[in-house]
Amino acid sequence: MSAVLAAIGATDARTWELKPLAEVADILDGKRIPVNAKEREKRSGPVPYYGATSQVGWIDDFLFNEELVLLGEDGAPFLEPNKPKAYVIRGKSWVNNHAHVLRARAVPTGWLAHYLNVVRYDELVTGTTRLKLTQAAMRQIRVPVAPWHVMEQRVAEIEKQFSRLDEAVANLKRVKANLRNLRSSALNAACEGPWPSIEFGLLARETLVGLDRGRDQQRSVGPGHRYVKMNIVSMDGEIQSEGIVYVDASSQEATKYALRSGDILFNTRNSVELVGKSALVPPELEGALYNNNLMRIRTTPEIDSAFLAMQMCAPAFRRQLEKVKRATTSVAAIYLKDLVRVPVIVPPVTEQCHIVAEVESRLSIIREVAAEADRNSQRAQALRQAILQRAFAGEPEVRIAA
Question: Which domain holds residue 88?
Fold first, then answer.
């Protein structure tokens, strides 16, 4: 991103007043009415239904018909500085009780919303797993009030910079979408060619569902055995080792369920969208255990496990899995008796190794570009916060560095 110098309106912030939130905005929480999802289904309509951080549905009537600021009451990312906690809504709306409702009075609406996104909430919120900003705590917030023309000018400049960042982020999303398409094409190369297909079951020398350990038996740090859960197996065929937990296991269990480099982990139970994801076990996870929503697969000499793992991640293979999924309303499963019938392309082993090397070379480039896109997306989020911090510190300009 090229360097940009954006004027935010020179003024002396020492002349600004800090006023209690209730003096600069009307608090309209008493007008909120929550409606559960089942009831909203019966009352579907054209009016947006808002929650803590965004619109969460539609409804057939409205509570408000004006420009307002919504600030999360619970469920908002209060301790994550680069994520928004407040947002502006306009026109007819219905708001549930997960968001405070504010009507800006002594400051512009945009000024209030932007300022509420730089407030430090760590000493205002309560709770552990689900943080809550009570109305009493919210009333402790003091809002800077500058001359009206200064506030309007700064809001305009903030939003101009945000528009530029939004455009950059949209471009990054397009890059990521193109990379996903390239990845699919690369993986499909492992499923193509003039070679015979063999049923999966004839290529699996050994299969074993993993060790059952409940959440109360898992620890985020050792001692214990590393334990791979289904949530750290990605749809891209990678195991995200930062999500490893630790469990106790007997010596017999540790031997029986130990992973080896080159094993394949297959997710047998999950949501309809995620069931069937798989990954090749890397050398650094040698000896780790795995849970009972995963099945360990060890292959026969006729197929290279890295080649099979690539094929199992390819869109063509996943389309085959769609035919054997068994689903209820909340859980889907792929049973071994069905998996063994799925066809697998089997070139000569030397050709398999050549395909793996070629595909891995392409995937490596794709991963590098994707990682750079992710870094730039994170940087864009940080820049939004930097712009706000400078604007409300009264600094005369904001620099977005290259």
Answer: 17-144
